[in-house]
Amino acid sequence: MTSSPPRPEDPNPSAATAAPGGPPPHVAHPQRVRSFVTRAGRTTTGQAKALAELGPRFVLPFQQTKLDLAAAFGREAPVVLEIGFGMGDATAHIASLRPDENFLCCEVHEPGVGALLKRIGEMGLTNIRILQHDAVEVVDHMLEASTLASIHIFFPDPWHKKRHHKRRLIQPPLVAKLAQRLIPGGYLHCATDWQPYAEQMLEVLTAEPLLENTAAGYAERPAYRPETKFERRGLKLGHGVWDLVFRRRAAVP
Fold first, then answer.
1. Angle at 212 between CA 36 and CA 203, to 5 degrees
2. What is the pLDDT along the chain (253 residues), one digit of tens a residue?
3. Where does substrate bind (predicted)?
4. Which of these, 130, 82, 132, lies nearest to 110 by C-alpha position?
């Protein structure tokens, strides 16, 4: 499939919903939602070096069996799943703030994987593992129910055109799977800079019976999520950013 180019202002265009072998662009409703959009990009020398030197330690292979999280990280700790980390700046920042948590991060874009590995080396981080694979398949095959403390999905592709809305990542079937994989009290945090997508996110998350909103509508940006340069530029231009933070209920009402 020939993917739509990422928006210049989108800090994380890989957290989208298209893939090679999928339907052509004129098809409105693909049969399967994926967590990424294929895009071109050049891997820099520094990123390639990080992939070669740090990839064997920090990049996990995709498997169609459940992942032993404690073995993968070499310790027992709460696990945060991040879907689509772009170039990894926010991921590295949050992981450095929260060293007592393990971060399992999905991203298919090789320059982004290399960039995060480079940050891992520069910052001496040990609590990140990367899966260079479609996050939807990771959730389906590798993650047990009630094992995740948190899920972060920051600035997924909004698929602006109405006929492409079914390609958006935040849809009821995936949200149900994500909610099932959270521990009771665990949270799902989404952020977007596209108001119509924020409104759809709020509708979908509110409708999921396993989740409850932590705010009366949209949440204040949590302190752990840094503002990106794209976000700061957008805010200066008067654009909005919407955060949504939902928690898994202890019991379904």
1. 55
2. 434 344 444 445 445 443 434 334 433 334 455 544 555 568 999 999 999 999 999 999 999 999 999 999 999 999 999 999 999 999 999 999 999 999 999 999 999 999 999 999 999 999 999 999 999 999 999 999 999 999 999 999 987 788 868 889 999 999 999 999 999 999 999 999 999 999 999 999 999 999 999 999 999 999 999 998 778 887 888 889 999 999 999 877 7
3. 161, 193, 228-231
4. 132
Query: In angstroms, rounded to a whole number, what is the distance separating the alpha carbons of residues 124 and 189?
Result: 26
100 has binding-site annotation: no
Known binder of ligand: residue 230? yes
Tell me the whole-structure pTM to 2 decimals: 0.83
Domains along the chain with CATH numbers:
45-248 (3.40.50.150)
Whether 101 has a binding-site annotation, put simply, is no
What sections of 143-194 are H helices per DSSP? Answer: 172-181
* Residue 193 marked as a ligand binder: yes
Is 157 an active-site residue? yes
Q: Is residue 53 part of an annotated ligand binding site?
A: no
10, 68, 157, 243: the catalytic one is: 157
Instruction: Give the whole-angstrom CA distance, residue 128 versus residue 148.
Output: 14
Would you say 206 and 190 are in contact if contact means Cβ atoms under 8 Å apart? no
Report yes or no: 222 and 189 within 8 Å, Cβ to Cβ: yes
